[in-house]
Specification:
470 residues, alpha+beta, Phosphorylase Kinase, domain 1, Aminoglycoside 3'-phosphotransferase, Chain: A, domain 2, 3 domains, 7-stranded antiparallel beta sheet, 6-stranded antiparallel beta sheet, 12 helices, 22% strand, binds adenosine-5'-diphosphate, binds the ligand O=P(O)(O)O[C@H]1O[C@H](CO)[C@@H](O[C@H]2O[C@H](CO)[C@@H](O)[C@H](O)[C@H]2O)[C@H](O)[C@H]1O, Maltokinase
């Protein structure tokens, strides 16, 4: 097997690869840097792999490789293939994020940058002042569902290696930098980032980000699932009567998001969308729906119903926009002993970077959280139904409890975020962003978790029914 074929197999099986379900080939593979500290025994290089789609613009994915002259048994699961080394001899290429030795080179390079910047080849390691890195810490690759690869260094720092990369600023880095310098309580502090000057486009590509490791963090999605399981275990009680009620946390999350939006509005440009721009936004949402129908044909059933939602959006004017998170859901929140933290400001992975950097409505983030409050109980219910333990009566009771949980937490979150009732404009924005997110989710689920596709489809069903004048 050629190295290119081996690369295709490896990338196709990776969770972080966003091109699943599309026709693609490995295009040019470009080596953009070699980590300082590389030598004869281990050389760590960064490759940019072009993903060439049929009839569409290519994507570029980062693949850091640990190259060894001999096979490494401990890394068997991360072997990609063999290729010719610089001296013409065959070397074994492993996905470097799995390798502690390789990750040590990243950490030491960041440490050597102290409070400024250090360069090697075209690679530049940047640091934000205020934290001494623990260079003895061992790396552990985070497993689980992620669009990028995150590696913890002990309990000191966490490095996120961006997988899909684009020339220019990655909002995850720029937003964390601004919020860190502003002293925000709601993010993990940024410690540094790695970028490279790409010779072919003569622009900078951000490759990785180093930040504070949140030692006491529990994933918001996991907490929500635990709360739902508690409720389901006592299915004849209401949410407020059960121990694991989430409403207090939902309200704290609402406040954390409101404060984060306020800080972002202070430090990034704020704008106003006029009537023409709102009509264009509604058209873009309609376009997204039409494109999504190509992937998930069941969506066609909601097209007519969603028109009313998008028409109402198109009729708005003078809508405030600002820097937002862009892909907020419970899995992007962490509960620490010091309150909620929001992570992953990269925006929706499927959108072009240029679009993700534009000011947007904060209601997009609110909608993302509401979608998550809908997902959590439905995912737990799906697993319970799959066990088929209690028959139709129990299924109906759990479905009722699921709706109760979603509505209760959505209410608590919204009341804390908006500090009062929503006006008509806010509700219109919220409905449109909820619809747009559910359309995006339907495509995301069809490609990544087909058994979950019904969750967003059901939400669209409810939404389009509630707007249908008939
Ligand atoms: N600073 C942090 N400290 C500890 N864990 C974190 C931190 N940031 C993120 N995580 C964990 O890593 C996971 C992936 O992070 P995220 O930024 O969402 O990556 P991705 O871009 O791959 O989705 C999160 O769900 C969270 O559990
Ligand atoms: O990889 P990212 O975290 O950037 O986000 C993508 O994956 C998410 C799934 O992990 C997906 O979120 C959807 O599923 C969540 C449950 O796993 C649910 O809480 C969210 O509400 C739902 O949107 C997200 O949309 C996608 O961009």
């Amino acid at each position: 097997m050629t190295f290119t074929d081996a690369l295709k197999d490896y990338i196709d099986g990776a969770r972080w690869f966003g091109g699943k379900g599309r026709e693609w080939q490995v295009g040019a593979v470009r080596r953009v840097g070699t980590l300082p500290g590389s030598g004869d025994g281990l050389s760590v290089v960064i490759e940019l792999v072009e993903i060439a789609y049929t009839g569409a613009e290519p994507d570029y994915y980062q693949l850091p490789l640990a190259l060894y002259p001999d096979q490494q048994e401990r890394l068997g699961h991360a072997l990609i293939g063999t290729l010719d080394g610089e001296d013409g001899r065959e070397v074994f290429a492993y996905d470097a994020v799995h390798d502690r030795e390789a990750m040590g080179l990243w950490l030491r390079a960041f440490a050597s940058a102290a409070d400024g910047k250090v360069t090697a080849d075209d690679l530049a390691f940047h640091r934000v002042a205020g934290h001494d890195l623990d260079t003895e810490a061992h790396s552990t690759l985070f497993t689980g569902e992620q669009s990028n690869s995150s590696v913890a260094f002990g309990e000191d720092s966490l490095m996120k290696v961006f997988r899909k990369v684009t020339p220019g600023v990655n909002p995850d880095v720029s937003i964390h930098e601004v919020l860190t310098r502003a002293g925000s309580d709601h993010v993990a502090a940024l410690y540094g980032w790695l970028d490279v000057v790409d010779e072919t486009t003569d622009s900078t590509i951000q490759l990785a980000m180093l930040q504070q490791f949140l030692r006491t963090a529990t994933d918001g999605w996991e907490l929500a699932l635990a709360s739902v399981r508690n409720l389901f275990a006592e299915a004849d009680l209401h949410a407020e009567e059960v121990g694991g009620d989430f409403a207090g946390e939902a309200a704290r999350l609402g406040r954390a998001l409101a404060e984060t939006h306020a800080t972002l509005a202070e430090h990034f440009p704020v704008g106003v969308r006029d009537a023409e721009e709102m009509a264009a936004l509604a058209d873009a949402m309609r376009g997204r729906l039409r494109a999504a129908i190509e992937v998930v044909p069941q969506l066609a059933a909601y097209e007519a119903g969603l028109d009313a939602t998008y028409d109402a959006l198109a009729a708005l004017t003078d809508v405030t926009v600002q820097q937002v998170h862009g892909d907020l859901h419970l899995g992007q929140t962490l509960r620490t002993v010091r309150g909620w933290k929001i992570v992953d400001f990269e925006g929706e992975p499927a959108k072009p970077l240029s679009e993700r950097l534009l000011p947007d409505s904060p209601w997009r983030d609110v909608a993302g959280m509401l979608r998550s409050f809908d997902y959590a109980p439905r995912v737990v219910a799906m697993t319970s139904f799959a066990l088929d333990a209690g028959g139709d009566d129990q299924e109906a009771q759990l479905a009722y409890r699921a709706t109760e949980w979603s509505e209760r937490n959505a209410r608590a979150f919204l009341a804390a975020y908006a500090d009062g009732d929503l006006g008509e404009t806010e509700q219109t924005l919220l409905d449109a962003y909820v619809a747009d997110k559910a359309v995006y989710e339907a495509v995301y689920e069809a490609r990544n978790r087909p058994t979950w596709v019904q969750v967003p489809l059901d939400a669209l069903d409810r939404l389009s029914e509630s707007k249908d004048p008939a």
